[in-house]
Amino acid sequence: MSNDREKIIERIKKLMAVAEDRGATEHEAAAAALAAQRLIVQYDVEQWEIHAVTEEPIEEVYTNHAPRRWRWHLARVIAPAFRCKYLETTKRAWHKTKWQNDHLITFYGYKTDATAAAMTFNTLYKIGNRLARRHSNGADCGTYNAYVSGFVAGIESELVKQTEALMIVVPPKVNERYEAEYSDLKCADTTLKLGCGWDAQNAEMQGYQDGKEAVRSHRFEEPETEYVTDAPALMGA
């Protein structure tokens, strides 16, 4: 192995260590995972070069609970950028005073890929939800959905460029296993009811710019102190 490649491998390992460090913030972990994944694909790094195994297992990695319907749209653009497929797992969980269903987007792929995808999803969902609530506060109905629609479109515009430039594809074995295990999954209703007034139009444009910047910066800098706990999903939200 050349010295240059050894440096690349070492850089990837350090980034992955940050992503897996429990002392790192969720934003730091997601940014490190995104950077590591980009290097893995750019330099065609094999899993055995990073881990002491011949091949990583193909696994399901769950995200945090994401009640808003736009979770499907976000998962759709994140999964291929991390060489994954996706689905949803519903689990019963106790929330303060009652049991309810948790909606967990599930990324399916090689462990490193799926873990990185889940961490990136968690961070971008939290940021998008927080900013959408801010823009829709006191605004016309549908403004929240308009913002997140733009936010996902902005993320997609950046990830698609990276995916095409680096020729990222879902590994054949992941595709084969996914089709064998989940070919009978039913399609979910992912429709978002968008507003049509000025509030919604402005929110969608701002969401698009914020989504692009979230991927371009790789920093995910939204302050944790501004986080607003997600409200239960509304019909069509």
Tell me about this structure:
- This protein is α+β, with helices and mostly antiparallel strands and 237 residues long.
- It contains eight helices and three strands, in the order αααβαββαααα.
- β2 (85-95) and β3 form a beta hairpin.
- α1 runs antiparallel to α2 (26-42) and α6 runs parallel beside α8.
- It is globular and about 60 Å long.
- The termini are far apart.
How would you sum up this structure in a few lines?
The chain is α+β, with helices and mostly antiparallel strands and 237 residues long. The chain contains eight helices and three strands, in the order H-H-H-E-H-E-E-H-H-H-H. Helix 2 (26-42) packs across helix 5 (111-136) and helix 5 runs antiparallel to helix 6.
User: What structural class should be given to the helix and strand makeup?
Assistant: alpha+beta
Please give the radius of gyration in angstroms.
18 Å
Count of extended strands: 3
Q: What is the count of DSSP helices, taking H or I runs of 4+ residues?
A: 8
Helix share of residues?
40-55%
> How can the largest sheet be summarized?
3 strands, antiparallel
The SSE string, one letter per element, is HHHEHEEHHHH
Distance between the ends: 51 Å
Multimerization state: single chain
Mean pLDDT level:
82
Shape: globular
**Percent strand:** 5-15%
Uncertain spans: 219-237
